[in-house]
Amino acid sequence: MSNDTSENWLKFLNPESLKANLIRSSIYITCWEMLKNSVVDHPRTFYTSTWEDGKFIPDPEYKKEVLALDDDPLIASALWFKNNGAIDTDDIILLRGFRSHRHEIAHELPKFLGDIQSNVQQEYFYGMLGLVAKIDKWWIKNFEIPINPDFDARNLSEEDLDGVQSMSMIMMNLLISVADGKDEQLRRLYTEMKKNIEAKKSSKSG
Question: pTM of the full predicted structure?
Answer without folding.
Answer: 0.87
